[in-house]
Design a protein that fits this description.
Distance between the termini: 24 Å
Strand order of the largest sheet: 2-1-11-10-9-6-5-4-3
Largest sheet: 9 strands, parallel
Number of helices: 12
Bound molecules: 3-hydroxy-3-methylglutaryl-coenzyme A, magnesium ion
Number of domains: 1
Shape: globular
Structural class: alpha/beta
Radius of gyration: 18 Å
Order of helices and strands: EHHEEHEHEHHEEEHEHEHEHHH
Strand content: 5-15%
Number of strands: 11
CATH topology: TIM Barrel
CATH architecture: Alpha-Beta Barrel
CATH class: Alpha Beta
Length: 307
């Protein structure tokens, strides 16, 4: 199959990336990061999550951050700012802060569902149904996530048919896109392709996104394997920030800079400006006192040859 000509990058660094940082990051830093990412040309930026602060303390400023981003004079038209909402309580709070897009997040593994959202897969689907119904009545867009699409930190390998079943449920609920999360980054091109092939029996590939953590350094290979199957939406995190607090040892998502370098090399359009992206990555890495966890960013910032 020929590769897609255009790819949408969904930037998840401010949520998936920062949720894992132990030190509380001021709202003003998060807001500036999000504005820089929008200025770099990213058209979808996941801002925060409306979950209890006792579960994810870093997202305790959700209301302040979302309101500021939406009211900013620098707000770019056409940029989507989704937020995670695990239940109606979170949905109502997100709505109150002005959210126009939310994301519900389930799992293909029972043990991860229990640890991450304190309920079975069946219970979580009931909660999500309520959120999806409320959102649809208000014309709020809903994105769906499935975690542990190939492997679970507690249960090991996950059956592709189970992932496909949960993806189908979310799609049938009205999710405009279902993002397939390799939460612990254990997938390889073969297991990722098997999983996508199972999912595309239930959900069109144009409605699926790849959300690959890079724990084993496989994320870029997994993205290429997904492109080969026609997938054209990928989640990534600026400077490779992140992990999941309920998946011990998992590292961040694929770095947005690495993803962009790959896509530019394949002549695939994204609308994202590499220089501005690098500057956004430097901004947050400087604040956190570390170098970006992106090979492409570090090579480009050092002035190395770029193809
Ligand atoms: P729970 O403790 O079972 O909730 O948590 P509950 O319904 O029993 O309520 C307990 C208390 O929390 C009550 O307050 C509720 O009102 C309150 P109290 O009466 O004790 O004062 N509460 C809330 N407060 C604020 N916002 C809310 C909310 N809901 C209830 N939304 C719950 C269940 C689902 C809320 C919890 O387990 C949760 O929020 N989990 C989310 C954890 C999380 O954010 N994980 C990381 C994101 S997922 C991820 O990173 C994976 C992803 O990137 C894809 C991948 O990589 O695989 C998406
Ligand atoms: Mg994730």
């Amino acid at each position: 199959m020929t590769l897609p000509r255009r790819v949408k990058i969904v930037e998840v660094g401010p949520r998936d990336g920062l949720q894992n940082e132990a030190q509380i990051i001021p709202a003003a830093i998060k807001i500036e990061l999000i504005e820089r990412l929008a200025d770099a040309g990213l058209s979808a930026i996941e801002v925060t999550s409306f979950v209890p602060a006792k579960w994810i303390p870093q997202m305790g400023d959700n209301d302040e951050v979302l309101r500021a981003v939406l009211a900013s004079p620098q707000r770019k038209p056409g940029v989507a700012y989704p937020v995670l909402t695990p239940n109606l309580r979170g949905f109502d709070a997100a709505l109150e802060a002005g959210a126009t897009e939310v994301a519900i997040f389930g799992a293909a593994s029972e043990a991860f569902s229990q640890k991450n959202i304190n309920g079975s897969i069946a219970e979580s689907l009931k909660r999500f149904d309520a959120v999806a119904d409320a959102a649809s009545a208000l014309e709020i867009k809903v994105r769906g996530y499935v975690s542990c699409v190939v492997a679970c930190p507690y249960e090991g390998a996950v059956d592709p048919a189970k992932t496909a079943w949960v993806a189908k449920k979310l799609y049938e609920m009205g999710c405009y896109e279902v993002s397939l999360g390799d939460t612990i980054g254990a997938g390889t091109p073969a297991s990722i392709q098997r999983m996508i092939e199972a999912c595309t029996k239930e959900v069109p590939v144009s409605k699926l996104a790849g959300h690959y953590h890079d724990t084993y350094g496989m994320a870029i290979a997994n993205i290429y394997a997904s492109l080969e199957l026609g997938m054209a939406v990928f989640d990534s995190s600026i400077a490779g920030l992140g992990g999941c607090p309920y998946a011990p040892g998992a590292s961040g998502n694929v770095a947005t800079e690495d993803l962009l370098y790959l896509l530019q090399g394949l002549n695939i359009e994204t609308g994202v400006d590499m220089d501005k992206l690098l500057a956004a990555g430097q901004f947050i890495s400087h604040y956190l006192g570390r170098v970006p966890a992106s090979k492409a960013a570090n090579a480009l910032l050092a002035g190395r040859y770029a193809a």
